[in-house]
Every structure is written in structure tokens, then in C-alpha cells.
Amino acid sequence: MPPAVTARADTGPWFRRHRRSAAPRLRLVCFPHAGGTAQLFHTWPSRLPDDVELLAVRYPGRQDRLAEPCVESMDVLADAITDALTDHLGLPLVFFGHSMGSSVAYEVAARLEARHGVSPERLLVSGRAAPHRAKHTGLHEADDETLIAGIRSLGDLGSEAFDIPELRELLLPPLRADYRLIETYRPAAPAPLRSPITAYVGTDDHGCVREHVLAWAELTTSGDFTLRAFEGDHFYLVPREDELLADVARRLDGVRVAVAKT
Description:
This protein is α/β, with parallel strands linked by helices. The protein has helices spanning 74-85, 100-116, 144-154, 165-183, 210-214, 241-261; strands at residues 9-11, 15-19, 26-31, 52-57, 93-98, 122-126, 197-202, 225-230. The radius of gyration is 17 Å and the shape is globular.
């Protein structure tokens, strides 16, 4: 008999739940990129194991949180997401973050570990240098055209929306706020986590210097760090979704086996 399937649903303001099983054994929490939304992950459940529940983080200031002010501080954002996650600690957690979302995921993981003694079973980071090695572009201080051009230089993920005045007016404020958040986030000595870390990167992502991505290895005390590269630019995860999620699913299976043995 196939697993029970429930409809997608929100779980409080901070998460969109994609649940394919009535009895999940593992919770994958996904953090979008700058200017991104929970919609980025809406196709993922069909490519993940049936017993994995997916929670996609919903940043304020966009989509159905459009009326809320954007968050421009990493501390404020990470504190709020950490507080929201305390109601979801009943299952083992794995975090996946893309670009800015990688740094947000790291900060939430660090807070869970320090405040609740809970560590994600694995931290999956994508398209982002380690927090203490990231370069800053100053785009959050640039004019609108320069900011949009900077985004387009990374790759094309729906950037044609900026050519439509009505959509541009909606998209620019959260994009600029997110860039202000990530470019003013400059931890000098981020604390290593207990969680193993896997880093993903596009082979043509000019914003990710390999040695700076490899520096994520310095942020785990587990001795378990891996790097995987997929063909493509900063937004490789869309055209390479099948390949990426095959790797993610394999690592989730490994987490499940490890948890079962403990």
C-alpha cells in the first residue's frame, strides 16, 4: 500500500509544510536564497523518501507575508526561525540552505545547539562560501539597476520578472533587504557545529571560490565534510534538481540509519 499523502499546508507563519507521509521519521528544513521564497522547494517532496517531511522557511516581506516588514539583520532572522522551530524538534532534523539560506541555516543550527542542545543530523549548504570566508559586493547599497544586474550575473532564475513594473515593485524590497542582511553579516570566528556538513556548488558559479566553500569544513567538529559540484551556475539546483536530490536523498537515508543505531 502506498504511503498516506497529505496536502501541502502552512505551519505557522515561518514554514510551508510539504508532507508526503503520515508518519515522517525525518524533517528536512529548507532555507531559500536572497530574494527567494518557499516556492523554490515545492517540487522536492516527490523526489525525496516517503518518510521525509519538508519544511520550507517563509521569510517575511514576500508572497503571503507581503504585508510584514522585511528582516535586515541576521540575528533577528535566525532568532525568529529558531524560536519557531522549537515546536518541531520531535523528529531528527536536517537543514538545507541555498546561497544566503546556507548562512541562515548555519546560524539557526548554532542557536539550536547552544540553546536547546539539539543539533541537525546534517547541514547541507549550497552556493555559498563559509560565513567567515564570504566576499561582500556592496550590492545592497547600489541603485536598483545595479542590484538587478548583479543578480542576473549569477544566473537566470525568473529574473524576467524584474522587467514587469508591477512585479519589480514587489520583488525589489525583499531582495534589497536580504542583500543588506547577508552583506552586513560578518562573523569573524563562527563556532563549529556538531553537525556533519555537505557543501554543494555549481561548477560555473563565479561567486563561489572553491577554497572559500571548502572552509565549511572548519565549521564542523564531526570530521565529516564533503563537497559536491554540479554542472551549472549559481542556480544549478533548478536544472540539476534530479541529480541534487538523488544525492540529498542518499544522505537522508544515511542519517536515518545512523539515528536508528543510536
